[in-house]
């Protein structure tokens, strides 16, 4: 398989044999099916009764039990409360990240100041420090501040991040013209005013991408919320989902999947609507290297 | 920007020459970047040093701290469970990462080929797994990896024995590596694809004129020019696989509280349970420090291996 695809690559459509062409598309389609099938399967299990998961041969048709299954989710957890909690935390973090990262990225792109490059490399280097190294003391700080089991513990440490600064700097460096800033200065505009009324309108697309990416990351975050949140009223959606996965009365997969599907759907819609931006943002990390 | 326009500070109150345009813009820049450094100092830098400090103390996070020297490190390294978590992490890291990178490279080359239509749609489809939360991925795959689940049915159809994916030593590792692979293969393929697209087409043109066959083009053009991307992707995957936590924690934790069962315990799971289950913050800190050192060592091995790749790129390593 390997040598075959290597050899057909970068050939013009005309000179590839029909057999290799079929094989080529077959592999790509298999890849796409493997990527998409779990989403479909999630929906199949969510809409069938609880025995459907272990049906032999596997059941692949969509059923009608979705609302029954989802009913049982609501009996066990405050699902919508958890969704709202996640929405709140993700929105607060995202607004803050977009604001502070844009500000810092703009400064790194458009200002001259001592140690600029060293500071920027420092920002990049922090990306490679594993977060587990700081989990324990951060937890202790949160305990000292009495922030355990509050959203502040989730929001405050995440308010600005290195990736966002890197991403905004790359974009601002080319999108914002220095002459515009200078003429703004000569007209007597303050630096923040120039940032707000000249730079921000030009770099909005990059801010939007950063916002979507960040929202998805915070929405999907598991480790830190697991450590910090104690009371089930405060659980984010990921913790609530994990709590449903319980043996108590036999695993009720119809119920679990109806919740998982409902929790995944909003992100899936956001992704499909903005897929170009999301992909551009998520792969930009590689471009710098 | 840096031109010090002499004495036009229109908004400044006292127009002393001290408050020049240059100084003002420097101060602004430092103010703009300061939130990151303040936050990192509190929740990044200080915790790192405190973790190292903590690893020499015995502490339950409540009572007084007691200095114990290297005892925490002795305790951790003589705990068989730590070594189980270490080998588990490595095995699942290798099983999840190596096939993933090879398939990703393969997919990227196919997507990049002139023959492929619907490139954009394929890109979106391959990317979809990556936006799903790890918890959701784990829950979905746990339905497939059940004892009477779909995967075992498939194995039986192909004439193979069923596997105990939720309790066997290898079964659990295969299940978890599959989840990791599913979530990341498409992502890495897209990164490789953006790398492939950055290679100028006339290089291939020139090579073809010089009589280079496809294999030689691959060995002398594609792989060397793709190298930075390969280095990046392997590095990120290695660091990520050393930090594996959510998949095993959720997958094996069918009691609703998460689990540290031996088949799937990883180093981060070990750290988590030392600190937040057992209340041994000292040994947990020692584990964190060791995890960090292991991360650095593996990153360096990684760079070294991928750095050598150029030499034997024509060989089997694709």
UniProtKB/TrEMBL annotation, chain A:
InterPro entries: MetI-like, MetI-like_sf. Keywords: Cell membrane, Membrane, Transmembrane, Transmembrane helix, Transport. It holds the Pfam family BPD_transp_1. Gene3D superfamilies: MetI-like (1.10.3720.10). Its main location: membrane. It is found in: Cell membrane. This is Carbohydrate ABC transporter permease. It comes from Paenibacillus chibensis.
């Amino acid at each position: 398989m390997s040598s075959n695809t290597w050899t057909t690559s970068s050939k013009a459509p005309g000179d590839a044999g029909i057999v290799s062409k079929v094989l080529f598309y077959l592999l790509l389609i298999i890849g796409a099916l493997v990527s998409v099938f779990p989403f479909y399967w999630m929906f199949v299990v969510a809409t069938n009764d609880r025995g459907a998961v272990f049906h032999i041969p596997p059941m692949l048709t969509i059923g009608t039990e979705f609302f029954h299954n989802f009913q049982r989710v609501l009996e066990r957890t405050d699902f919508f409360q958890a969704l709202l909690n996640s929405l709140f935390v993700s929105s607060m973090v995202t607004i803050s990240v977009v604001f502070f990262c844009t500000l810092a990225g703009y400064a790194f792109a458009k200002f001259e100041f001592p140690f600029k490059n060293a500071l920027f490399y420092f920002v990049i280097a922090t990306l490679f420090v594993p977060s587990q190294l700081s989990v324990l003391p951060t937890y202790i700080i949160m305990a000292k501040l009495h922030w355990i089991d509050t959203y502040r513990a989730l929001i405050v440490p995440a308010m600005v991040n290195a990736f966002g600064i890197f991403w905004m700097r790359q974009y601002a460096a080319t999108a914002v013209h220095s002459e515009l800033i200078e003429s703004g200065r000569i007209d007597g505009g303050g630096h923040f005013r120039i940032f707000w009324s000249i730079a921000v309108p030009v770099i909005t697309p990059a801010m939007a991408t950063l916002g979507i990416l960040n929202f998805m990351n915070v929405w999907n975050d598991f480790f830190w919320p697991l450590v910090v949140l104690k009371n089930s009223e405060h659980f984010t959606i990921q913790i609530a989902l994990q709590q449903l996965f319980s043996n108590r009365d036999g695993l009720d997969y119809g119920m679990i999947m109806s919740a998982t599907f409902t929790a995944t759907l909003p992100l899936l819609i956001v992704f499909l609507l903005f897929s170009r931006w999301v992909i551009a943002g998520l792969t930009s990390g590689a471009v710098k290297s | 920007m840096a031109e010090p326009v002499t004495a036009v500070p229109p908004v400044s109150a006292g127009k002393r020459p001290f408050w020049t345009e240059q100084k003002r813009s420097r101060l602004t820049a430092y103010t703009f970047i300061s939130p990151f450094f303040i936050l990192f100092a509190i929740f990044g830098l200080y915790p790192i040093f405190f973790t190292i400090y903590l690893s020499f103390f015995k502490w339950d996070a409540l009572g007084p701290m007691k200095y114990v020297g290297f005892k925490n490190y002795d305790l951790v390294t003589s705990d068989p469970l730590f070594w189980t978590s270490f080998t588990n992490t490595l095995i699942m890291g290798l099983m999840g990462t190596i096939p993933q990178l090879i398939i990703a490279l393969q997919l990227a080359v196919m997507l990049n080929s002139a023959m492929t239509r619907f490139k954009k749609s394929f890109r979106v489809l391959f990317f979809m797994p990556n936006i799903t939360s790890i918890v959701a991925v784990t829950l979905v795959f746990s339905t497939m990896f059940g004892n009477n689940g779909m995967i075992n049915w498939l194995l039986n159809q192909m004439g193979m024995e069923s596997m105990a994916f939720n309790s066997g030593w290898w079964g659990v590792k295969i299940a978890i590596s599959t989840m990791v692979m599913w979530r990341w293969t498409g992502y890495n393929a897209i990164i490789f694809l953006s790398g492939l697209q950055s290679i100028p087409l006339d290089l291939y043109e020139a090579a073809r004129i010089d009589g280079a066959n496809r294999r030689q083009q691959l060995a002398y053009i594609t792989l060397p020019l793709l190298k930075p991307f390969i280095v990046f992707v392997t590095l990120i995957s290695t660091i990520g696989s050393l930090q594996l936590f959510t998949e095993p924690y959720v997958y094996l934790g069918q009691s609703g509280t998460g689990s540290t069962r031996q088949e799937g315990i990883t180093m981060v799971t070990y750290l988590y349970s030392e600190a937040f289950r057992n209340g041994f913050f000292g040994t947990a800190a020692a584990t964190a420090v060791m995890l960090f050192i292991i991360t650095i060592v593996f990153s360096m091995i990684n760079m070294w291996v991928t750095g050598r790749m150029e030499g034997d790129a024509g060989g089997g390593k694709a």
